[in-house]
Amino acid sequence: MLNFVIKRLLMLVPVFLAVSMIIFLIIHMVPGDPIDNMVQIGSSPEQRAELIAKYGLDKPLLVQYGVWFRNLLEGDLGNAIILRRPVAELIEENLPHSLLLGCLAFAFSAIVGVASGALAAIYKDSWIDRGVMTLILLGSTLPSFWLGLLLILVFAVQLEWFPVSGARSWSALVLPVLTIGLHGVALVSRVTRAAMLDVGRRDFVLMLHAKGLSHRRIQLQHVLRHALLPVVTILSLRIGWIVGGAVTIEFVFARPGLGSLLITSLNQRDYPVVQGCLLMLAMAVMLGTLLGDLVQASLDPRVRDSLK
Amino acid sequence: MSRLRKSSALSRTLGTWRGGVSLLCILIVVGGALFAPWLAPYAYDIQNLSATNQDPSWAHWLGTDEFGRDVLSRIIVGARTSLTVAITAISVSVLVGMSLGAAAGYFGGLFDRLVSAVVDLTWSFPEVLIALMFVALIGAGLEATMIAISIAYLAQFARLTRAQVMSIKSETYVEAAVNLGAGHIHILFRHLLPNAITPVIVAGMLAMGDAIILEATLGFFGLGVQPPKPSWGAMMSSGTAQIFLAPWTILGPGLAIAFTVVSINLFGDALIEALDIRNRLRDN
Amino acid sequence: MALLTVRHLCVSIGRLQPLDGVTLELDKGQILGVVGESGSGKSLTAMAVMGLLPLIGGHISRGSIDFDGTELVGLNERTYRAMRGQRLALITQNPMTSLDPMHTVGAQIDQVALLHLGFSAAQARTRTLELLAQLRIPDAATVYQQYPHQMSGGMKQRIVIAMALAGDPDLIIADEPTTALDVTIQAQIIQILVDLVRQRGLALILITHDMGVVAQACDKVVVLYGGRVAESNSVHNIFARPAHPYTRALIGCIAQTGQARGSLKGIPGVVPGVGDFASGCRYHPRCDHAQDRCQSEVPLLQANDAGQVACLFPEGACRG
Amino acid sequence: MSAKLLEVRGLTRTFTSRNGLFGRKRVMTAVADVSLDVPRGQVTGVVGESGCGKSTLARLVLRLLEADQGQVLFEGVDLASLSASAMRRLRRRLQFVFQDPYSSIDPRYTIRAALLEPSQVQGEHLHAAAATDRINSLMAMVGLNPSLAQSYPHQLSGGQKQRIGIARALALQPSFLVLDEPTASLDVSIQAQIIALLEKLQQELGLTYLFISHDLGLVRYFCDRIVVMYLGRIVEVLPSADTPPRHPYTIALMESTFEPDPAKRRVITRLNGELPDAFNPPPGCAYAARCAHASDRCRSERPALVLRDGHELACHHPPT
Amino acid sequence: QDATFVINARENGFPTYNPLKGTKLNVANNLIFDRLVVQDADHSFHGQLATSWESAPDGMSWTFKLRKGVKFHDGEPFNAKVIEWWLPKFKGTENAYMTESIDKIVIIDDYTVKLVMKNPDPALLFNLATSFMGVPSPKSYEALGDKFGVAAAVGSGPFKLESFTVGQQTKLVRNEDYRWASDLSKNQGPAKIKNLTLREISEDSTAFLELKTGGVDALLSVPTDFLPKLQAEKSIKVVMLPGTEVFYMPINTSVEPFTDIKVREAVALAVNQKEIMSSLFGGTGAVANNFLVSSLQESKINPKFNISYNPDRSKKLLDEAGWLMGAGGVRAKGGVPLTVKLWTQNGTQFKRVTEVIQAQLKAVGVNAEITVQDAASINAMYKKKTDHQLAVRSYDYVNADILDWFFSGTRLGYPNISMWNDPKGEALNAKAMKGSKTWDERVSNFKAYHEYIMSQFLFAPIYQPTQSFAYSTTRLKMPDNIRGIKLATQSIMDIEVK
Ligand SMILES: Nc1ncnc2c1ncn2[C@@H]1O[C@H](COP(=O)(O)OP(=O)(O)OP(=O)(O)O)[C@@H](O)[C@H]1O
Ligand SMILES: Nc1ncnc2c1ncn2[C@@H]1O[C@H](COP(=O)(O)OP(=O)(O)OP(=O)(O)O)[C@@H](O)[C@H]1O
Ligand SMILES: [Mg+2]
Ligand SMILES: [Mg+2]
C-alpha cells in the first residue's frame, strides 16, 4: 500500500509539469497586465516601462515560464506583483481558512448527504423519501450566494444565533459551512440513494434477508457500505472544491481563502499568485483522487487487493 | 408480447406522474421563451425612470426594476437567454465531451491517458473559476459564458462517455460485429455511440438545470449576457444590490430558476427510471 | 405430519400471477426436487416459502404454507425473520454474487450464529470453522478470513452452504445451487448436499432444471410448468412412468450415453412468460398429445400412481 | 479439395494482467501450443472446464484475437498473412455463434436490422424487398416466425435469440462455423431444440463445425471428434464419439455427468480440488494435483501429446 | 472603547502599509503614519508634523518648521534628520513622481528643513498631504526592509498597527503617547478609541447587515442602494460628504464617427445627467458638467464650456453632421446606421449608468451596444487604441492634474482613452503641469487647459457621487463637523465610543 502511494505520487510529477505549463500559458493569454494596477496617476510612461522590466514581463513568454519553473523546482513560488509578498506566504495565510471551511463543508455534505440519501433509500417511495429528496432538490436550485444571504437573514439577523460574517470565531463558520455544504448534500444524497437502490437489488442482499437479518441492518451494515464507493469517487473528484470552490461564499461572508485570493488576483492579473493558487488546486485534486482511491481501498477488499 | 414491452422509454417516462407533470412544466417554460414577445406584457428594455423599483401591482405583476422596467416581462424574455445558454452550452459540451470521451475510450492508450488527465483536471476546478478564466480570455458576452459553461461541464460528459464506451467495447455484440467484418467506423457509430448516448443525454438534461444556476452565479460576478438583454442570472445579480430595497426583483427570477430546474430534474429522474435497463428487463 | 406442506400457493406480483396453485409436501430427511424450465416459478416458490416475496414486490394471494405446524402465510415479519436462517435456510442460485464482497466469508457465516443462536463471537467462530471442516474445505482457518473475491466459484458455493447450515435449520431450499458451476464442481456440491441430508436428517428442496441431478439426488420430484404443478411423484415413478407429457419431454431433452445422432428433439415452441400463458392447459401449445379440450379446460391436479398429475390425458389414459 | 478445412498449428496466446495500476505484471497462458485439424463437413468438439481456454481458442481461430504464436490455415491460407480488408472479406466464410445469446445482439437493433447487418458491413446493399426476402428465408431457416423481425432482442426468449445468432452467422453463407457453447445459457428443453437445429443445418448446408462445450454428454452425442482441453492445453483427442476415454481427466469428466436415470444412481467419484492457478501453472502435468494416479514424474515433467492408435493422449500413466 | 469599522470596499485587498512603495493605501495608513500637512474639507492645508511652511516667491524652495516632541511608535524621535533620510527614499519606487520636483533637502536646524526644488511645483503641498507621504520610522523601516508595511508598520500616528491580514482586517491600537494631532481635530491627546478594527467586506449586503445587527459600528462608505434602508434605521445615522469621484464617458476621437466634433458634441449633449442622478442615485450626489470634482477650484470654469443635457441641440448637430433619422429610430449616413460600441466594466453602478446612457443615446437616434468586461481586460483593450468608441468610467481623485493623466498626448490609448493629442492641448498641458509658480497661477493654468478640453468634447460628464458613511448612534459619537476631504484621521481622532 505504501509502495502504491509512493508510486502514485511519483507519477504526479509529469502531470504536474504539464499542468504547470498549461496554467502558465492560460494565465498569460488572458488580456490585461498587473502593471495597470500599480501605476500611479501622474507617473510617466517611462516609469511604467521600468516596472514592466522590473517584473520581467517584457521577456518572451517561454523565458518567463522557464524562470518561474526553475524557481518552482527550488520550492519558490515567486513573489506577488500586486500583493508584494512571497506567493507561498499568501497561500500559507489563506489556505488554512479554505481548508477549514472546505473540510467542514465537505464533511457536512458527506455526512448529511449520505445520511439523507440512506434514509431516502431505506424508506424508498415513502413520504420520508419524497420529502427529503424534494427538499434537497429545492435547496440545490438556489444559487449559493443567494442561499448564503438567506441564511444570514434568518440565522444572523432574525435569530441572532451566529455572526453575519467574518472569520474570527468558530460560530462564524456555521453559516458558510451550511451554505456550501447544502449544495454538496444534494449531489451526495442523490448518488447515495441511487447507489443504495442499485446495490439493494444485488443477489447478496437476498441472501442476507434469507439469513434473517432485519431490513434496516442490511441497509446500514451492508448496502450502505457498497453505496459509499461511488460516493467516494464523486467526493474525491470534488476535493478541488475544498481548496478553491468557496469563492462566492468567501465574498458573501467576507472570509479569507484561496478562492477569493485567486479571483482577486485573477482580476488584477497578479500572475504569480494565480499560478500559485492554481497549482495548489491541481495538487489538491491529484491528492484528492489518491485519497479517494485509498478510502475506497479501505472500504472494499477487492480494491485493496488490486492496490497491493 | 405484452403491450408493456412495446412502449418506448418516453411514453414510459410520461406514464409516471412525475414524468408527465415535469414535462408539462418544461413545456410551459419553453413555450414562454418561444412566444416571449407576444406573452410579455411590456417590452423588456423600455425604461421608465420615473417609476423605478415599484411594488408589484396590477399593472406590473412582479413590480419594476431599478430602471422602471417590468420584471415579469423581463423574466419571460430572460427565459430565452437562460434557456439558450443552458441548451447551447450543454449541447456543445455533450458533443465535444462525447467525441473526446468516445475516442479516448475506444482507442485507449496514451491518447486516453492524456485526455483523461486533462478532463479530470477541468472537472475539479470550480466552474466559476473556469468561467472567469475564459471570460477573461475571450471577453465577456453570452458566447464567452456559453463556452465557459460548456467547458465546465465537458469533463463530466467525456468521463461518462468514456466509461460507457469502455464497457460497451467489450460487449459481445461489438465482437459479433467484428466477426461479421465491420470496421472502426461502423463499430463506433453504429454500436458504441448509440448505446452510450442514453446516460449522457440524461446527465445532459440534469446539467441543463445546473447550467441555468451557473449562469446565475456568473451573473453574480458580473459576467454573462450583455445589457439590456435580460437573463434570469443577470436579473438576480443586479437584483442582489437591491435585495433590501426591491426584493421582488430577485424573487421573480429566483422562482423561475427554481421552477425550471426542479422540472428538469424531475423529468431527468423519471427518464432515468424509464431508461433503466433493469426496468426494461422486468417488463420482459 | 409432513415438515412442510404447501397448498394451492398463488403468488401475485403487480397484476401478474406467476404462481397459480402450487402444492407440495416434504418430510424430514427427504430431498424434494423441483424442476421446470426457466420462468416456471421455481425460484418464486422458494421465495414464497422463505417469506421474501416483498423484496421483489410480490405477495401470496392464496394458499397456505404449513411448516412444522406453523402457518407461514400471514406470519408477522418479526417471527418470520427469527425463523429465517435458523429454521429455514436458502442457498441461492449464483454463488458468485451471493456473498457480500466487502466482508470476510467467516464474518458472514458467523452472522447467523450470532443472530439466531445467541453465540459469542468466539463461539461463532469455532462453530464456523467446524462447519467449514465438515464441508471438506481444506485450511479452514485461512478461508475463514478470506474475502469472496479471493476464492473460486465452487468454494464460494460451499461457503453459501455453510451459511445455510450455520443456523442448524430444519429445511434448506437450494435454488439451482450448481447451475453456475462446472460439471466436476457440480458433482462435488451435489454430493455434499446429499450427504448432509442423509447425515443430519434435515429436509432439502433442490431446485434445478437438470433431470440428471434430480435422478441422482432426489427422493421426490415436483415438475412445474407455467407456475402450476404439472406432476409430482417419487423420483422412481417419475422416471419410470412419467404421466405428464411435459415430464416425458423434459427427460427426453438430455443426451444420454450412446444415444443416436438426430434423436434429440427438445420441446418445441418457447417457454411462455407470465402474461403469455395459454388458456386451458398451459402446456398444450407445445404438447404433441394435445386435444381440443386441452385448450379450454384447466387440468386439475389428480392423484395418480402414488403421485399427482395435472393432465387431462395422462400417460395411462392416453393409451387407453 | 483437401479433407482438412482448417488447420491449427501451435497456437499460443498469453494474457498479462496487472494487479492494480502498479501491481506486478502477471502472465497467464490461456492457450498453449494447441494444434488441431478440422475436417471438412464434420463436427469437431472441444470440451473442458470453465477457464481452460476454449473461448480463447475459438477467438484465435477466427482471428478475433491475435495469436502470440502459431498459425491458423483456412483452406491452406494463413489467416495472419491476410491484410485487414482481406480478412474482413474472408469473414464471410468463417462465422461465430456466441456463447451468450443475450448479449451478442445489439439491444438497439431490431431483429431485422441485426439480420441485415452482415450484408451491410460486407458492403452489399439490398432493396427493401430483397432485404425482406432475405430475412424471411433466414428466419425460416432457423425455424422462427418472420413476424418477429420487428421485435427488439429483449422481447425474445433466449432460444429465439440464439436462433437469431445462428441466422446472423448463416447470413453470409459461411462454410465454417465456430459454435462457442451455443446452448450453455439455455434451458435443457431449448438446448435440445438448438442442437437439433444445428444438426439439420449441417446436413442441409454441408457446414463444418467447431463445437465448444463443457458438457461431455452433449459433445459425445453431437460430435465426430472430441478434443479435450485442460488449462490451455489439449490433453486428449478422441477420434470418435464412442472411443473410450483414456486420460484420467476425461474419465473424471464423464463420471461427473449425471445420467437421468435414478436406477443408475451411484456415489459420485469426487474429483477433488479445482483448476490450478493459471498464473502459476505447476511444472509438470497440470492435472497432477487432482489426479488419483499422479506420480512424482507427473508433478515434474509435462507429458507430451502423443498419437497412438489414432488416439492422441497426453498422460504418463494412462489407465489401461 | 473598542470599535469596528468596515472600510470602503474599494480599498479592499490593499496589500501594504508601506507608504513609500505602496501604490494603494487604505484609510488605516493615515492612522499609523503622520504626514507633514493634512487637508480640510475645503482643501485648505493644515500642519501636522510641520507646524508652518513657506515657499520662496519663485517657487524654487520650501521651508518647513517641524513639530517638536513627536516620537515614532518605536520610540525614535522625529526631527529634520528624518526628513533628510525620508524624501530621497522615494527614488526608484513606484511613488517616485511625488518627490520628483525636489532637488535636495537642506537641514536648517533640528526642526527646520528646506526643500530645494528643480522646478516650481505648487502641487507640492497637495502631494505632501497624500497618504504616500506618511512618515515611517527610519530605524524600523531600515530594519524591516521588504517586510515593512506587511509584517509591521511603524509611524508616529495616533494608532499602532497590531495585526494586518490582507483582504480581511487591520487591527489597530491607540498610541497612548499621541499628543500631536493636527488642529483639525478637537482632541489633541490620544485617540478616544482604544482598539480599532478595520474590516474589509466585499459584499455590500453583508456589510449592511453587519451594521444593522451591531456586528460593526460604522461603514466608511455606503452604496447608494442601501441609503434609504439605512436612513430608515433608528439607531443608524448616515452622513454625506462632498464627492471625490466623477463618472464620465470618454469618446475615442480617433475613430469614426467621433472624428467629427459635431457628433462628439451631440453625444455629450444627449446625456441627461439630472435623470441619472435622480433615478439611479436617489437624488444624492451632484451632476457633473465638466471633468473635475466641484470642490476643486479648477472646476469653476466659464459656464459656457460646461456640458449639460440638450437633446434638441444634440439632434440638430447630428442632422448637421449628416446622420439622419432612419428606420427603427436609429440614425444613418450613406446607409450606415449610427451604431457605436459602449464599453463598461463590471460592477453594478457602471452597468446601471451605462444602461441608462444607452437608452438616452437611443433617444437621439444613436444605437449603442454595450459590452461589459472586467477592468483589467478593458484597459488592455483601450491600449489597442482603435477598438473602442464610447465607454463609461469613473475616477476618484481630487487634484486638477488628473487632466494631464487622462488627456496628455504621451499616454494615448490608456489612460488617454479619448486619444486626444493636439499641439494646443499639449502646450496648455505643459504650462499647467510645469509652468506654474504659485498655487493661484496653477489654478488658472489648469482652468485654461480644462476649458480647452471641454471645448473639444472629448468626453461627456455624467455624475458625481457623494461620499456617505453610516454609523451606529448607539455606539459612536461623531464630531459635528467632518474635517478633511474624507472621513479620515482628522475626524476619527474625535470619534467617541459610548
Ligand atoms: N420481480 C418480478 N416481477 C415480475 N415478474 C417476476 C418477478 N420475479 C419473477 N417474475 C416472473 O415470475 C415467473 C417465475 O419466475 P421464477 O424466478 O420463479 O422462475 P424460475 O423457475 O426460478 O426460472 P429460472 O430457471 O430462470 O431461475 C417468471 O416468468 C418471471 O418472469
Ligand atoms: N481478454 C482477456 N484478457 C485477460 N484474460 C483473458 C482474456 N480472455 C480470456 N482470459 C483468460 O483466459 C482464460 C481462458 O479463458 P476462456 O474464456 O478461453 O475460457 P473458457 O474455456 O471459454 O471458459 P468458459 O467455459 O467459462 O467460457 C481465463 O482464465 C480467462 O480469465
Ligand atoms: Mg430461478
Ligand atoms: Mg468460454
TrEMBL record, chain A:
InterPro entries: BPD_transp_1_N (IPR045621), MetI-like (IPR000515), MetI-like_sf (IPR035906)
The keyword Transport appears for this protein: yes
CC per GO annotation: plasma membrane
Subcellular location: Cell membrane
Record Gene3D superfamilies: MetI-like
Transmembrane segments: 9-30, 99-123, 135-157, 169-188, 227-253, 273-295
Record key words, sorted: Cell membrane, Membrane, Transmembrane, Transmembrane helix, Transport
Alphabetized CDD domains for the sequence: TM_PBP2 (cd06261)
Domain of life (superkingdom): Bacteria
Domain ABC transmembrane type-1 as annotated: residue spans: 95-292
Family annotation (Pfam families): BPD_transp_1 (PF00528), BPD_transp_1_N (PF19300)
A GO biological-process term: transmembrane transport
Membrane topology: Multi-pass membrane protein
Family: Belongs to the binding-protein-dependent transport system permease family.
Protein name listed in UniProt: Glutathione ABC transporter permease GsiC
Taxonomic classification: Bacteria, Pseudomonadati, Pseudomonadota, Betaproteobacteria, Burkholderiales
From TrEMBL, chain B:
One cellular component term from this protein's GO annotations in UniProt: plasma membrane
Segments crossing the lipid bilayer: 20-40, 83-108, 128-154, 200-225, 245-272
SUPFAM superfamilies: MetI-like
Domain of life, per lineage: Bacteria
Pfam families membership: BPD_transp_1, OppC_N
Domain ABC transmembrane type-1 intervals: 79-268
Record localization: Cell membrane
InterPro entries to which the protein is assigned, alphabetical: BP-dependent_transpt_permease, MetI-like, MetI-like_sf, OppC_N
Keyword list, A-Z: Cell membrane, Membrane, Transmembrane, Transmembrane helix, Transport
Membrane-topology annotation of the record: Multi-pass membrane protein
One biological process term in Gene Ontology: transmembrane transport
CDD domains xrefs: TM_PBP2
PANTHER family for this protein: OLIGOPEPTIDE TRANSPORT SYSTEM PERMEASE PROTEIN APPC (PTHR43386), PEPTIDE ABC TRANSPORTER PERMEASE PROTEIN (PTHR43386:SF25)
Family assignment from sequence similarity: Belongs to the binding-protein-dependent transport system permease family.
Protein name per UniProt: Peptide ABC transporter permease
Taxonomic source organism: Rhodoferax fermentans
From TrEMBL, chain C:
Cellular compartments annotated: Cell inner membrane
Membrane topology qualifier: Peripheral membrane protein
CC per GO annotation: plasma membrane
Limits of the ABC transporter domain: 4-251
GO function terms (MF aspect): ATP binding; ATP hydrolysis activity
InterPro entries on file: AAA+_ATPase (IPR003593), ABC_Ni/Peptide_Import (IPR050388), ABC_transporter-like_ATP-bd (IPR003439), ABC_transporter-like_CS (IPR017871), Oligopep_ABC_C (IPR013563), P-loop_NTPase (IPR027417)
PROSITE patterns for this protein: ABC_TRANSPORTER_1, ABC_TRANSPORTER_2
GO BP of this protein: peptide transport; transmembrane transport
Keywords: ATP-binding, Cell membrane, Membrane, Nucleotide-binding, Transport
Similarity field: Belongs to the ABC transporter superfamily.
PANTHER family from the UniProt entry: DIPEPTIDE TRANSPORT ATP-BINDING PROTEIN DPPD (PTHR43297:SF2), OLIGOPEPTIDE TRANSPORT ATP-BINDING PROTEIN APPD (PTHR43297)
Name the record gives this protein: ABC transporter ATP-binding protein
Species this protein is from: Rhodoferax fermentans
TrEMBL record, chain D:
Keyword Cell membrane: yes
InterPro entries in alphabetical order: AAA+_ATPase (IPR003593), ABC_transp_ATP-bind (IPR050319), ABC_transporter-like_ATP-bd (IPR003439), ABC_transporter-like_CS (IPR017871), Oligopep_ABC_C (IPR013563), P-loop_NTPase (IPR027417)
UniProt name for this protein: Peptide ABC transporter ATP-binding protein
Biological processes annotated in GO: peptide transport; transmembrane transport
Domain ABC transporter residue range list: 6-256
Pfam family, any one: oligo_HPY
Keyword Coiled coil: no
Organism: Rhodoferax fermentans
MF term (GO), any: ATP binding
PROSITE patterns, per the entry: ABC_TRANSPORTER_1, ABC_TRANSPORTER_2
Cited SUPFAM superfamilies: P-loop containing nucleoside triphosphate hydrolases
Keywords assigned: ATP-binding, Cell membrane, Membrane, Nucleotide-binding, Transport
